[in-house]
Design goal:
- It is a single chain.
- By secondary structure, the chain is an alpha+beta fold.
- Helices cover about 45% and strands about 20% of the residues.
- The chain folds into 2 domains: about 1-190, no CATH class; about 205-230 and about 265-410.
- The chain has helices at about 15-45, 50-65, 70-90, 145-150, 230-250, 255-290, 300-305, 310-315, 320-330, 345, 375-395, 400, 410-415; strands at about 1-10, 110, 115-120, 125, 130-135, 150-155, 160, 170-180, 185-190, 210-215, 220, 225, 290-295, 335-340, 365, 375.
- The structure holds zinc ion (ZN).
- The site of zinc ion has 8 residues, from loops.
Length: about 425
Amino acid sequence: MKRGYQYRIYPNKEQRILLEQHFGSIRFVYNRSLFIKNTMYSKFKINVTEIDLNNNLTSLKEFHPWLKDLNSQSLQQANRNLLTGFKNFFEGNGDYPTRKSKRDNNFSFQVPQNYQINLTTSKIYLPKIGWIKIVLHRDFLDKEFIKNELVTKQVNGELILDQKLNKEFDILKTLTVSRTSAGRYHVSILINDHVPEPISVEFHETTTIGIDVGIKSFAILSSGEVIDNPRYLLKSLKKLKKLQRAVSKKQKGSKNRKKAILKLAKQHQLVANQRNDFQHKVSIKIISESQAICLEDLNVSGMIKNHKLAQAISDVGWSEFIRKLTYKAEWYGKTILRIGRFDVSSKLCNVCGYKKDDLTLKTREWECPSCKTFHDRDVNAAINIKNIALNNLNTVGTTERACGLTDISQRYEARSHWF
Ligand SMILES: [Zn+2]
């Protein structure tokens, strides 16, 4: 199984400059390749491949010599990521790739190989950047795992884990370097421990749970359980908004504005940590209590752009929660069942199937005109999500076909009509 392990790194001043240079250049290459791919297709109907884009790097370096200072594997990885984005889009698993910008916090790049970790002095070597201080905590780098699974080397009595020496074992995979808005740097190392994925746990109607996204609450389960955002997180979010306002009031370029921005970035970090912690706890709880989990496939990014619920939804960090839930399900052999992105789940009566077409977002509770069942809007939706998911599984197989959405364009359209 593949897992990512994240560690904080402390680059010195020169290394920070080099890292920033990498962040910017990787974005540059990515955007350039995106432009080439779009133009070649729209003008000449030519499908540009990864090899084409990598070949183009040579001439790109001639025009922009500063690109030569960068790890070329990281540049190639930017092309690979772009093409993966296209592949995902055409398979219906993501949005159409767009330009990356500084403003969207795109500060990261990947190092596919040739990194080293000094286990004695806690430093990590990145090609073209050098040795950076790293904080290594337990988990994958535990002594037993390294002794049993990996090859190390001794240099001046120091123990070094060299990715190159371990290449053939296919355990140490891609490393990602990133920076948060608060100015913290991390590396995340993808490890394939080759432990086979657990055999799927069988599930039945009684051990399956449906989850609905909450607006007022974080999530609502088909069992009727409501999971609220913790108070401390709400408090921190409130403070975050206050600090955001404070920044916008300060004069541009002023010292006070700089101070306010730093305060804001720190608060962002705090909120991110608290939210992470909360999401880990909730996902562990849900995974341990059920054998299968049913979700509605929401287009969160589309919702954020289009709807006034934007703030509420980005605050709860739903898509990140789903990501945590999904990989934890994989770890424990649990099943995730997704249903299509369409809005019938809240409008159907889960008892008799009556469809209440005039149900507005404001209506929190309603009585079914047909069978007179009284519904809590969200619990009813969660039950429907569960029923639809189980029903799809029993009938057609894939949810898309069950919804009558046979091709990508239809699916795409359905997503944009979520509300
Ligand atoms: Zn009914």
